[in-house]
Amino acid sequence: MDGSKNFNIQKMDVDQSPTSQETDKEEDNVDVNELALEIVKNAIRAAVQSMEEAEKPTKSIKWITHGEFTAERGRKQIEEFVLTWEYQDRWVHYTQFIEREDRIHSYHYIYCVRWSIPTAKRPMPPVTASAFFTIKITKNKPPDMPIEISYIFEGLSLVHRPGMTRFREKWLRDIIEAKNILMESIPF
């Protein structure tokens, strides 16, 4: 014997259809492809939205100077600025002067713009959303210098400046929704 063995190879009928394991792999590939396609569509949609927003400059107004400033003129300027924001007609708002803070080198005039969505059923909504504006009047600036304005939305810490940030109605909706959830959780 030379150490080799004789083997008899017999041809068998083999089902050429995919096995259940191969079918599972194909289904997984289809699922992954669908998921990848959805991710790409969302990325493209977000990029298009970002480009559209970049084409629309943020709106602002011509602000008054230190010499022209009074608390009432400041309130009217804030009203004028808020009217440049894009929001649905169902929102109503009013602006109120809160206080004047005397700082070392400046005066800070604080205003509150209160937002709500009245309905026929509830003309006086139980919750509102507020934006707080600060107009800074520096004591040693010449009267022809423009005033400095910043604002924040209640419950949020990001400080906005006119002409720098585009207003989002979603900020108001989120504040109202959070307050409604809180109100529902408290038994009266």
UniProtKB/TrEMBL annotation:
Membrane-spanning ranges: none
Ranges where the record places region Disordered: 1-29
GO CC aspect terms: cAMP-dependent protein kinase complex
UniProt-listed InterPro entries: AKAP, AKAP_28
Recorded GO MF terms: protein kinase A regulatory subunit binding
Signal peptide interval: none
Protein name, UniProt field: A-kinase anchor protein 14
Biological source species: Mustela putorius furo
Name of the encoding gene: AKAP14
